[in-house]
Request: fold
Amino acid sequence: MKQIDGAAVAQKVHQETRQRIEALAARGIQPGLAVVLVGDDPASRAYVRSKDKRAAELGFHSVKRELPATTSQEELLAVVRELNHDPAIHGILVQSPPPKQIDEAAIVRAIDPNKDVDGFHPVNVAKLALEDPTGFVPCTPLGCIRLLEEAGVSTAGANAVVVGRSMIVGKPMALLLMRRGKGGDATVTVAHSRSKNLAAITRQAEIVIAAVGRPHFLGAEHIGDGAVVIDVGINRIDDPTSPKGTRLVGDVDYDAVAERCAAITPVPGGVGPMTIAMLMANTVQACEQLTK
Ligand SMILES: Nc1nc2c(c(=O)[nH]1)N[C@@H](CN(C=O)c1ccc(C(=O)N[C@@H](CCC(=O)O)C(=O)O)cc1)CN2
Reply:
């Protein structure tokens, strides 16, 4: 069994991003990323800190806007509109999930689609379905495709099962796997937590993408011999043996599945680091397109 090292692939992507930033600098352009956090969810705060830190390290103009948990829809919309009009900002994202009073779909729709580096705006969803390369693809599924490529996994003609149907991962993942060309051309099945006979479906797959958001949801009985498993889940569970009392696990029972699969991503250190790497790459793409 081969473990797919997401941290190493993310470093490779960052190196490519650095080179594109240098090419922009030679034209007197600095790409700008704005990350908006509403509220004080500790995990969201940590992800936003990582994005801001990485962006600054790579040479972006990085803006972090932290708003209180009581922020109203109108106040958040005003921030988004301001960033839409800021010429120093090429990429905007609002960290998900926002607090309950926020209508997230309306906020996503308010972001200029040319700056929507999360790829959540309906214009970018449509561009993905239309296979238009000027669109932005959500960072996590884009990272999964890159991990498959770097692990030497050919998706063309392969039987791939995506478990999960979210707008952030499952749906775009299925579209990416089925699109024409590199990283695509797969035969794709989308299953989810309510699918009947899930194990019978996933056991047929040469590639399994687990994105259900439930700890250890897929066990050995779900995975066929020699399959490649990409675990998108990041679930914090209690663990009295760890110093913090908790630990991160994926949607896949790693120890049970590792014995029979050909390759698998760990959690942490698999898909997670790729999410931030692809965000940086998307932001450079936005800057390149906006300054053509
Ligand atoms: N606006 C967005 N919100 C959210 C997204 C997103 O793509 N856009 N994705 C997730 C959270 N996320 C980025 O925002 C993210 C999650 C996990 C990681 C990561 O590197 N995880 C590490 C473990 C980190 C830890 O120890 O806690 C790993 O898996 O190795 C990066 C980014 C939801 N919200």
User: Anything to note?
Assistant: The longest strand covers residues 32-38. Residues 28-114 form a domain with the Rossmann fold fold (CATH 3.40.50.10860). The two ends are 45 Å apart (CA to CA).
